[in-house]
Amino acid sequence: YFHIDIMDGHFVPNLTLSPFFVSQVKKLASSPLDCHLMVTHPENYIDELAKAGCDMVTLHVETISGQAFRLINKIQTLKMKVGIIFSPESAVENAKYYLHKVDKVTVLTV
Q1: SS3 letters for 48-110?
Q2: What per-residue confidence (pLDDT) applies to 13?
Q3: What is the CATH number of the domain that holds 32?
């Protein structure tokens, strides 16, 4: 996978790449694209990432509470894989209900 960080300047202080960038990389890369959403509202990015050619959307558990099943199902319906990310301070207990539905788990150590 080709890993692309997308940051919104809210969930994390930096502001970086967009679905447009993903679409440009898709034209050149032969590897599948994993879009790591470091954003407060990941639901606002899902459709655009699918259109851009993203192959996997990776979400932080803190940003999907209360809508995890809906977002996971939407991503899978759009024919993308789903990953979740735990930060050191993440409440792992919250993900036990949907962990079986995801394709990848990432544990950040920073």
Answers
A1: HHHHHCCCEEEEEHHHCCCCHHHHHHHHHHCCCEEEEEECCCCCHHHHHHCHHHCCEEEECCC
A2: 87
A3: 3.20.20.70
